[in-house]
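Quick question about two entries, pasted in order.
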Amino acid sequence: MGLLSVAPMMDYTDRHYRFFLRLLSRHTTLYTEMVPDTAIRFGNRHKFLRYDPCEHPVVLQLGGSDSVALAESAAIGEEYGYDAINLNCGCPSERVEHGNFGASLMADPLHVRRIVEAMNQAVSIPVTVKHRIGIRERSGVGRESYDELKQFVSACVDGGVSHFIVHARIAILGKLNPAQNRSIPPLQYETVYRLKQDFPELFIEINGGIRTLEEAELHLKHVDGIMIGRAACDTPLLFAEADHRIYGTQNPETAESEKAVVRALLPYLHLQMDEGIPVHHVLRHAANLFYGRPGARLFRRRLAEEIFIRRDWTVATIDEAIEELLSCIPDDAVPLRDDEQLASSFFTPPVDR
C-alpha cells in the first residue's frame, strides 16, 4: 500500500465515504470499516464488501480471533478484489475485547502469528496488521514495554506479515472507552520511529493524532507511511492536496474546490437513490467539507435541517436544493482563524480502529 491512508472507522468509512474521498485524492489508500469475520461468513457479505472500482487501492479490515474463520473471510475478500487484508489488533472497545479480538489480541503474539499465517496461506494479496504500541489489560497486567512490542511484531513477521500500521499509543482495556483511548494514553511517536529503525526491512506506517499534511510530511522522514483517522472526518478537504504533496502527481480536477467536490458527488448520489439509499447516507460525509471557511456552519445546519430529514427527494429536486445551498456559500472565502474553526465545529469523530 502507499504513503498515505485513511484509517478504518466504524460507522464512517463505508463505501459512500470512500467514494467521496476518491473525489479528493486518487492515490490515498482507503479502508473499510472493521468487518467481523462472522458478518462475512454468516451475514449479508455483499452489503459489507461491495465497493466502487474507483476506490482502489482499498483494503478490507477484518475483526476476529479464530484463524480458520479469518482465513476463510480473507479469501472471500480477495475474491471481491480487495488490494490487501488487514487484521485489527488495535481496537480497544469493550465489545471487541469481550470477543477476544482487536487490541486484546496483542496479549497473545503466538496466537496472532497463527492467525496471520493462516490468512497468508489462504490469499495471494498482502496481509497486514494494525495494532497499538502496547496494551494494559483490565486486570492491570500489560504488555507495554518496547521489547514486548518487538516480540509482537516479530511473531507477525514469522506469520508472513511485512506491513504494519502502528497506532502510537497503548490501549488501556476495560477502563477507558474508545474516545478516551484516543486521547488519554500519550502519543509515543518515537517508539514507532524506533520500530522502523530496528525493522528496516518492514513497511511501518504510523497512526495517531496526525491532522495535517504538514505533520504527515514530517513523519515520512522517519517511517514509510502515514494513516490519518479523525482528521479525515472533520477536515476532509486536507486530502485535496494529498496527491500532489505526498505522491508528486496532479490533484484531481474534482478537488479544485469544495463546491466542485459536492457537484462531482451528485451523479453517485443519483445512483444510490435509484437503489433506495437515503440521501443522508451519502451526503453526511460532505458535512465538514467547508470546515474552517465562512459558510461552514450554514452548510452543515441546512444539510441536517432541510436535506437529511426529507425522504421524498427526486434527482431533479435534490440537485436543485444542493445548488441553492451552494449558492449561499461564498466563493474563494478566506479561511477562518483556528479559534473560529473550533467555535464553528460540532463534529464528533467516530471510533477509529
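Here is the second entry:
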Amino acid sequence: MEFTVKARCKKVKRVVMGTLQRLLTIIADGAFYSGSDLARILGVSRSTVNNYMKKLGELGLDIHSVPGKGYQLSVPLELLDIQAMQEPLGLASLKLISNIEIKFQLPSTNSYLMSLVRAEPQSSGVACFAEMQFAGRGRRGKLWVSPVGENIYLSVLWRFQQAPVDFACLGLAMAVAVARAVKRIGLDLVRIKWPNDIYLNGRKMGGILLEMSGESQGPCSVVVGIGLNVSMNSFLSRYIDQKWTSLKHHFDGDVSRNKVAGIVLEELVLALRDFQRSGFENFKSEWRQYDVIKGRQVILKMERTIIKGLALGIDKSGALLIERNGKVERFFHGEVSVCLD
C-alpha cells in the first residue's frame, strides 16, 4: 500500500533470510511450536529461536509466546506456492507465461525484473512474486508498504517487438486487468481512479507501477508491477496516510492469497497479449465503466501546479479530462483526488 515516507518507519528494513524464512514456513499454520522443537528442526539454539521470533515481530507479525506451549503465529499465513497459484490458470494464459518465480524478500519485484531485462533483453512472460519487499515503490516516488505474507506483490515482464501507437495507455489497460481479477474473486464494486489505482468502496486497495526499457515506438520491454492488498492487518498499516482497504475486509471467510495471485496473473498476461494485438481500444469502454471520479469535483496535483475542476472521464488517448472555467482541458500526468468540500 502506498504511503508518504515518515521517519519513524525505520523498522521496515532488509533482514537476513534463510533460517528465518524456514522458521516462518514452519509456524505459518498458526499452531503452537515449542522453542526446543524449533531449535532442533532448525539446528540452532533456543536463544537463537527467540531472537528470530523478535525479528518476525519487527516485520509486523504478531507472535504469541505461552509458557509450557511455545510460540504461535496469532494469524495463520498462507505463503505463496507456485502449484497452488497455477490452479486458476487456463491453458491460454499458461502458454503466455515462460516462468514464475517466488522470492521471499526483494527490494522490489519491479527492480528484480528490470535487472533481468538488462541481463536477458529478449525475456518475456516472466512473473515474479515476493512475500515481502523492503523497497517497494508506488507512483510519484512513494514507498509501498509491503508486509510479509499478507498481500500480493507481483511484477510481470513483457517484451513488445513493436509497441502499439497508444502505448502510453498501457497502465490504464493493466488497471482494467486487475479490476477484472477482483470481479472474478467476487467483488463487483471495484473501481479505478485515474490512471491506474484500484479502489473499493472509496478506499484504495491496489496500485500499478510500469517501468520500460527500449523504444516507445519500437522493440521494448515493460515490467508491470502490481500491489494488491489481500489481508493487510499488520502494524505497518499505521504508516499509510490515506484511506485503504483489503480483500479480506469484504468477505466473511478467508481469502486465498494463492487463488488471488493466480487470477491476477492470468488477467495480466491475457491483457498484455490483447494490448499487444490491438492497443487500448478494447479496454477503453470497460475502463470508463470502472471510473470512480467521473462527474466529481477533483484536485489534480502536478509538479508545479494544482488544478481544480470537474472530472469528465478520459479521452481516446487516456488523458484525464477536467472542466474548469468553462473549458475542458486534457492532462496526462499528476496525482488526482476527489474534493472533500
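Reply: The longest strand covers residues 203-214. The chain is about 30% helix and 30% strand. Hope that helps.
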